Structure prediction request, 330 residues.
Amino acid sequence: GEYMRSMIIADEVKRTWPNAEIKFILSQQAPYATQCPYPAELLEDTPTKQVKAVNQIMSDFLPDIVLFDASGRKSQLVHAHKLGAKVIFLSQHKRKRSRGMKIGRALVTDCHWVVQPEFVIGPISWLDRLKLKLINKPEPLNIGPVFTQPDTITQSALLAQYQLTQNEFVLFNAGSGGHRVNGELAADIFAKAASESYKASGILSVMVFGPNYPNLLPELEGVVVIPQLNNQQFINMLAAAKAAVLSGGDTLLQAIALHKPTLAVPVSKDQPPRITACVAQELVLSCDTALEPMKNNLAKLLSQEQMMHLCTKLARSKHLNGLDIAIKQL
Prediction:
């Protein structure tokens, strides 16, 4: 998620400022390390653990801005600051947000972006607010999910490629494809629910398995099976769907920002609180990761009454694309 978010920001920086020089620092063990389209320094381990190597790369590159996405030792942030770079720290949950507000880090951080809506993560404490005020540093800014905006060219090409019609299919995705629930791949449970949904409603299902799905892709009645999509493709597919069935990660918040009626299903232990917060705002439906609850709640999601209710709540919500806010800050 951190890498994908950094890629989205890098692409938009390049689009906005074509002459910008961009460099990534990655672990050579990361599965995407050799696929990065930008110049990348590959390290033996995660960059957070390679303090001297990262600092040396920054000294050689002399960046104007350094983004630490939920990573980085305090000494690395200090080094970037000493080089004259603007330091941006991104956090995605309370523990990381608290880490970014520690005095030693906050003193050398110019911007702290939280990639969650405030209603999900909650406000900072009065003590943290006072502490930041005393050291004259801004409070963390809740920018929300970061994603590439849909565009008609990409969307039209995708719909043509998979022979789909806008607003006439339900999109299913269980994250990267590797999550297991009670020993079973969450993607397999989602795929079965996709087929059952088609049988019950007659509405075509689209199942995106994700890059970490380890098995051969199945053939299922009424289901268009897609191995994986990049963020731009996924967002365009999501924007074109009638509704979605998603895990409780970043894609859920992206669906809310796109005002897409969604059934949220947790596939990892950090997701239920986020889903609960979204349900409390009446922005999504939710259920457990099991076939029967998914079938029942899918039928409810696709009912005219429920679709109208969710669409009304989503239309009234003020959830934006964090990418727009990030570029304005930059």
